[in-house]
Write a structure and sequence with these properties.
- The protein is mainly β.
- It has four helices and 41 strands.
- Strands 1, 31, 32, 33 and 34 form a five-stranded antiparallel sheet that branches. Strands 18, 19, 20, 21 and 22 form a five-stranded antiparallel sheet that branches.
- The longest helix has 12 residues.
- The protein is globular.
- The N terminus is likely disordered.
Length: 614
C-alpha cells in the first residue's frame, strides 16, 4: 500500500508516542485509495518552476533596436530591481524597471518609473525604509533639464505621497543633471546634482537638497537646493552618502585648476549648514594624476569606501591604476588610511572603472580589468583590502586574476559575503559570453568551482556587463540570490538587438540551479527515508549528499502549490544526512517534500509523500 515512506521509518519511540485518532485513520485510508498518478501529478509532472532559469539566461526585457543602459539595485531579500533607459517611444527616453527574484517566475511586469512627458536620463537610485526605492533623474519636460524624484516599492507600486510624474527636486534656471540620492538615517533623504544656474560665472556647480521621506523639502532648506561647491570651473560626477550623523558627504570631480582634475568631497549638516573649513569642499587626491569618476560604497556607520581610476598622462601611453580610500563620516581618512588611498591595480595597465563590494568583515573587495603592458591582453582581477587598508591575508598586492581568459570587457561585477567574493565578467569565448568565479577569504578558488570560472551563457552574439558609473550601485549588475549565490544581469545581443538577460548561479557554481526533468514521487530519488509517518508537524528527511553542497526542501500540497521552503547550508559529503523540517504550520493533509541539492550535479534530488495529521 505504501504510498508513504516505510512504516518502520522513524525511531520506535517516536512511533509509539504518536497515537492515531479516528481522523488520522480516515486520512490514511483516503491516501491509500487515491490513484498514484493523481497524487503524483501536481508536484511531479506539472511543475511550472523547472524551466524558468534557462541555460543561456532568462530574458528580463524584450529585444530593443537601441542599446540599453542597465542598472541593478539589489534587494537584501535575494532579489533585485532592474532599471533601464527605454526607447519604445520614438519621441522620448523613459526609465523602466522590473523586479526579479531568485525565482525568476515571480517577476513583476515592466513598469515606468515616472509618467513624465519629458526625456528621463542619468538616473540614480537608493534603497529606502519600508522596502522601498528612491529614484532621481534629470528631466527636460520644461527646459534643458530639471531634477525629479520618485519613491516606489521594490515591486513598482508608487508611494502614496508621490505623484506619478515625480516630485521636483530642482526646477531652477539653467540645466541640472547627474543626480545622486541617499537616505539620511532619520526619515529623510538627500539629493545632490550638477547645477548650471549661474554657469556663465562659475561653470557647473554641486548643489544638494534634503527631503522628508514622504517627499516634502525639509524645514529650513532653500527651495531648489543649497550650494556645496561653487568654485570657478567645472564640478561633476557627484555621489552623496550619509555621514552617520544625519548629515551628508558628497564626492565629486573638480576641474577648478587649469589642466588638472581632482577628486573632492563636501560636507553639510542636517540643517543645511556647511561646516567651517568646508566651503567649496576639500581635496581627496593631491597627486598630478587625473582621477576618474568616484565609485562609492557606503559604510553602515557613515562615510564610505571610494575607488577611482587614476590616469597619469605623458609619454606614448598613459599610465593607469586603481586607487582606493576609506573616508569617515566626518570627512577624514579612516584609521590606517590616507585620503590619497592605496594602489590596488597595476600602475601600468588598468582600464575601466572599478567595482566594489563589502566583504562582510569591515573590509572591501575591488574588481577591475587590466591591460598587460607587454602583450596588450586584458584580464579580469579582484582584490580584497582589509579595514586597515592592507591587502587581506592570502591576497597578493596586485589582486587575483579571475579565470583564464586573456581578453575581457571593461567591467567586473562583485558581491561579497562572509569574507568570500563572487565575481562575474565578460569572456570573449565565441563572441563574448558571461563567466563567473567564487574566491574564498584567502583569494583561492572555492571547491566545486573550476579554475577558469563557470559560463553563465553561451548564447550566440555578444553578451556584456555594463560599466559602473558614479552614483550607481558599486558592485555592478549583480545581486545576491539570498542563498549564497547570485543573479547576474547583462546586455545581450543574441537577436541582433539589445535586450537585458539574467542568470542565477548557486554558491557551489551551478548555473540555473533548478533541475531539468521530473522524477516520479514513488522512486524517492536521493531521499532514503522520511519519519515519523504520519507526523503532527516535525518530520525528519534523510537524504544522501554526494559532496559538500547546500540543499533546499520544498513542500507542495496536492494541487501542486508551494507551501513551505527550508534551506540548509552546505554540509559535508558523501554521507546520508538527517534534515529536520517543521511542517507544524500546515493544515492536516497529504504533502510532497522535494529535496534539491545544489552543486556540481544538479540531478541530486528526490521527492517523498508525507502526511500531516493531528
Amino acid at each position: 500500500m505504501l504510498l508513504l515512506s516505510s512504516p518502520s521509518a522513524g525511531p520506535p519511540r517516536e512511533a509509539a508516542m504518536f497515537r492515531p485518532t479516528r481522523a488520522v485513520f480516515a486520512l490514511l485510508a483516503l491516501v491509500a485509495t487515491m490513484p498514484p498518478a493523481a497524487m503524483a501529478t501536481p508536484p511531479c509532472f506539472s511543475d511550472p518552476f523547472r524551466t524558468v532559469w534557462r541555460p543561456d539566461g532568462t530574458a528580463v526585457t524584450s529585444p530593443r533596436a537601441v542599446p540599453l543602459e542597465l542598472i541593478v539595485v539589489p534587494d537584501p531579500r535575494g532579489a533585485a530591481r532592474v532599471f533601464w533607459n527605454d526607447f519604445r517611444d520614438p519621441n522620448k527616453v523613459s526609465v523602466y524597471s522590473r523586479y526579479v527574484t531568485s525565482e525568476a517566475w515571480e517577476q513583476t511586469t515592466e513598469c515606468r518609473v515616472s509618467l513624465s512627458t519629458g526625456n528621463e536620463a542619468q538616473s540614480s537610485f537608493a534603497r529606502a525604509p519600508e522596502q522601498s526605492l528612491l529614484t532621481v533623474w534629470s528631466d527636460d519636460r520644461d527646459d534643458d533639464g530639471d531634477i525629479y524624484v520618485q519613491r516606489s516599492s521594490f515591486g513598482c507600486g508608487r508611494w502614496p505621497s508621490f505623484v506619478p510624474e515625480g516630485i521636483p527636486v530642482c526646477t531652477g534656471p539653467g540645466r541640472q543633471s547627474q543626480p545622486s540620492v541617499a537616505v539620511d538615517g532619520k526619515e529623510g533623504f538627500y539629493v545632490a546634482w550638477v547645477d548650471q544656474r549661474i554657469g556663465s560665472t562659475t561653470g557647473s556647480d554641486i548643489y544638494i537638497q534634503r527631503f522628508h521621506d514622504y517627499g516634502q523639502v525639509w524645514e529650513g532648506w532653500p527651495i531648489n537646493g543649497a550650494p556645496l561647491c561653487a568654485s570657478p570651473g567645472e564640478q561633476f560626477d557627484p555621489v552623496v552618502v550619509a555621514d552617520g550623523s544625519v548629515g551628508a558627504l558628497v564626492f565629486f570631480l573638480d576641474a577648478t585648476k587649469p589642466a588638472d582634475l581632482d577628486l573632492f568631497m563636501a560636507r553639510i549638516s542636517e540643517t543645511g549648514v556647511v561646516p567651517a573649513g568646508w566651503t567649496n569642499g576639500r581635496a581627496v587626491t593631491t597627486s598630478t594624476a587625473d582621477p576618474g569618476g568616484p565609485i562609492v560604497l557606503p559604510v553602515a556607520t557613515g562615510g564610505a569606501f571610494v575607488a577611482w581610476l587614476e590616469v597619469t598622462l605623458g609619454g606614448a601611453n598613459p599610465e593607469m591604476g586603481i586607487r582606493l580610500t576609506r573616508v569617515t563620516g566626518q570627512g577624514e581618512a579612516a584609521p590606517g588610511w590616507s585620503l590619497d588611498g592605496v594602489s590596488v591595480g597595476a600602475v601600468a595597465g588598468t582600464t575601466g572603472a572599478p567595482t566594489l563590494a563589502g566583504d562582510g568583515e569591515s573590509g572591501v573587495f575591488v574588481g577591475w580589468v587590466e591591460r598587460a603592458s607587454v602583450s596588450g591582453e586584458v584580464e579580469a582581477f579582484a582584490a580584497r583590502v582589509g579595514a586597515d587598508g592592507v591587502p587581506a591575508p592570502g591576497w597578493p598586492a596586485g589582486g587575483r586574476k579571475l579565470g583564464a581568459a586573456t581578453w575581457v570587457s571593461t567591467s567586473v561585477a562583485l558581491i561579497g559575503e562572509g569574507g568570500m567574493v563572487l565575481a562575474a565578467w565578460t569572456d570573449p569565448g565565441d563572441g563574448a559570453n558571461i563567466r563567473a568565479q567564487r574566491l574564498d577569504a584567502a583569494g583561492n578558488v572555492v571547491a566545486f568551482w573550476p579554475t577558469d570560472g563557470v559560463l553563465l551563457s553561451e548564447a550566440v552574439g555578444q553578451q556584456r556587463l555594463d560599466t559602473v558609473r558614479p552614483g550607481e550601485p558599486a558592485g555592478g549588475t549583480i545581486a545576491s540570490d539570498g542563498s549564497g549565490g547570485a543573479i547576474v544581469f547583462w546586455i545581450d545581443y543574441r537577436a541582433n538587438q539589445s535586450a537585458i538577460y539574467a542568470q542565477r548561479i548557486s554558491q557551489n557554481g551551478v548555473v540555473s540551479p533548478r533541475e531539468w526533468g521530473n522524477p516520479t514521487c514513488d522512486e524517492g530519488g536521493w531521499i532514503t527515508r522520511t519519519y515519523p509517518v504520519p507526523t503532527r508537524g516535525a518530520v525528519t528527511i534523510e537524504a544522501f549528499t554526494p559532496d559538500e553542497r547546500a540543499a533546499r526542501f520544498e513542500v507542495y500540497d496536492m494541487r501542486g502549490r508551494l507551501r513551505h521552503v527550508e534551506r540548509v547550508a552546505a554540509a559535508p559529503g558523501p554521507a546520508i544526512l538527517s534534515f529536520p523540517i517543521d511542517l507544524s504550520a500546515l493544515r492536516p493533509g497529504v504533502y510532497f517534500v522535494r529535496y534539491i541539492g545544489e552543486g556540481r550535479y544538479p540531478s541530486v534530488r528526490g521527492t517523498r509523500r508525507v502526511v500531516v495529521a493531528r
